[in-house]
From TrEMBL:
The lineage of its organism: Bacteria, Bacillati, Actinomycetota, Actinomycetes, Micrococcales. Residues 110-316 form the ABC transmembrane type-1 domain. PANTHER family: ABC TRANSPORTER PERMEASE PROTEIN MG189-RELATED-RELATED, OSMOPROTECTIVE COMPOUNDS UPTAKE PERMEASE PROTEIN GGTD. It comes from Agromyces badenianii. This is Sugar ABC transporter permease. Coiled coil: none annotated. Signal peptide: none annotated.
Length: 331
């Protein structure tokens, strides 16, 4: 039977937070207990509610404005909705379904954003989970140094790697796509592949680091028992590690999904700027320049762009705190 043990790096701050919470319950006079008491006090709760309301007001104003006719939105503010009532769905119909060349035509850009974000998030999670398991539970030469190298990649500014990555894509990836299109014409010459790869490359270092912290906390006895029963690393990963790491995977999926969805810089460089692959953020940036006076369309388009991230966040919110603060066996 081979010996297995989690990698030594890094120090698990999240686990420490969880242990601090348990310590606060056992020892009321400790520093952790005092901090917990302050954060759960009535004053802290009221302050949190005030901050939440203040942060929500702009979004509420955006929602109200998106349903107001053009003449009202130009002459009155959304806060005067009771003195100047008036609602319409024409803004959303124009933004999403109009075929006029002068309309924003966000429908195709919305589909592009969904395709880019779903695969950009899924690819990152799959490779990060496998790499985190390998760093935590597979012993091989230079494992700790390799993990430190991956961890250090987080400090490289994104802007520094854009030009080299674009050169690599132009030299190798684009010709390969053109070659595949010549052989199989149904495969489009320009697709989402550069965006998927770019988002995965930029998201992997942080994803591996966070998931490693979670996966390495799984008790060694569980892994050892599986090995004694003859389980391979693949069986351990899919049948034991992935179910236990679901809260962590869901938590990072939220971060990665929102980051990819809101991205504009990477999309501008790697999408090519065509309607076939450009995301909704790129179209919104164009609308600000070309339709800066048509606020009714801009507000409707902006609210369309934030609906799907809100749905994803509220769907997975029950995993959010669990994944960040709990250990694998405390979920």
């Amino acid at each position: 039977m081979s010996s297995v043990a989690p990698a030594d790096l890094p120090i698990d701050k999240e686990l420490a937070d969880g242990e601090a919470a348990e310590l606060a319950e056992r020892e009321p006079g400790t520093k952790a207990a005092r901090v917990k008491k302050r954060l759960t006090s009535r004053t802290a709760t009221i302050a949190s509610l005030v901050i939440a309301v203040v942060w929500t007001i702009p979004t509420f104003g955006l929602l109200v404005s998106s349903f107001r006719p053009a003449e009202l939105i130009r002459t009155t503010g959304w806060w005067t909705i009771f003195q100047n009532p008036g609602f319409t769905l024409e803004n959303y119909a124009t933004v999403l379904f109009s075929t006029s060349s002068s309309s924003p035509q966000l429908g195709s850009y919305l589909v592009n954003s969904i395709a880019i974000t779903l695969l950009g998030t899924l690819i990152t999670l799959v490779f990060a989970a496998m790499a985190a398991y390998a760093f935590a539970w597979i012993r091989f030469k230079w494992v700790n140094w390799l993990f430190i190298f991956v961890f250090a990649l987080q400090i490289i500014p994104l802007q520094m790697s854009l030009v080299p990555l674009l050169q690599i894509f132009s030299t190798w990836l684009r010709p390969m796509q053109a070659w595949l299109h010549d052989i199989v014409p149904i495969i489009p010459e320009q697709n989402y592949l550069p965006l998927w790869l770019a988002h995965a490359m930029f998201g992997l270092p942080l994803a591996i680091f966070l998931l490693h912290n979670f996966i390495s906390d799984i008790p060694a006895d569980v892994i050892e028992a599986a090995k004694v029963d003859g389980a391979t690393h693949g069986q351990i990963f899919f049948r034991i590690v992935l179910p236990l790491a679901t809260p962590a995977l869901a938590s990072f999926a939220i971060f990665q999904f929102i980051w990819v969805w809101n991205d504009l810089l990477v999309a501008l460089i790697f999408s090519g700027g065509t309607q076939d692959v450009a995301p909704i953020t790129q179209r919104l940036a164009e609308l600000v320049g070309t339709r800066g006076q048509e606020w009714q369309l801009l507000t409707a388009a902006a609210f369309v762009s934030i609906v799907i991230p809100l749905i994803v966040f509220f769907s997975l919110q029950r995993y959010f705190v669990r994944g960040l603060l709990a250990g694998a066996t405390k979920g």
